[in-house]
Amino acid sequence: MKNKKEDSILQTVIKGPSYGYTDNYSIREMWNEIANEYKGEFRISHNSGYELEIQTVKIPYKKWIFTITISDTRPLKISTAGFPLQEFELLISWEDFIERIIKKFGKPEIELGNPDFDKKYLIKSDRPELVVNIFTPEVQKIFLKNNIYSFSYQTKRECEKAEILSVISRKVEDKELVKEIIKAHQLIIDNLEALKVFK
Questions:
Q1: What's the CA dihedral at 121, 124, 125, 129 to 10 degrees?
Q2: Is the residue at 44 inside a domain?
Q3: Which top-level group of life is the source organism from (predicted)?
Q4: Separation CA 135–CA 79 (nearest Å)
Q5: Quick check: pTM over 0.85?
């Protein structure tokens, strides 16, 4: 008989990003409803051999467009782009066992003061003082609840563009959870805008 710890590990693996095959046909209607609620657009495309389906939702928010994509072989991703107003880089991702060991002997990592978030995520940034104002407690709570795998903000100097990309678990079939994830990204955009990092 499995104990609670084994169950917890199994649930994490099931919820975590998977690069195997997942049939997303059944969630078409959910994405269509979300696109309609946010006055966005839902599109279905296929690869050249027509074996794999790619679902894309574009959602307007203020002057930005969130692009949400999921396919039969890739995890759910949310991205948007804008113009950088400051030099800033940020990467937040699940912290694995090796990173925990390295952290013990390396320089102190960025922490936000939430033990659950700090234990689960490794935070790297060239401007640590901004991170706590971008990843507020409300954003942290949504990331933890929805097991979001990674978040990045990167400035592409060659094209004067800043890109935001989040990678989420493979199995996202609950509309309310998707709306929560969208809300977290709206809050992040608001915070970046308020800090005059992104426009």
A1: 50
A2: yes
A3: Bacteria
A4: 17
A5: no
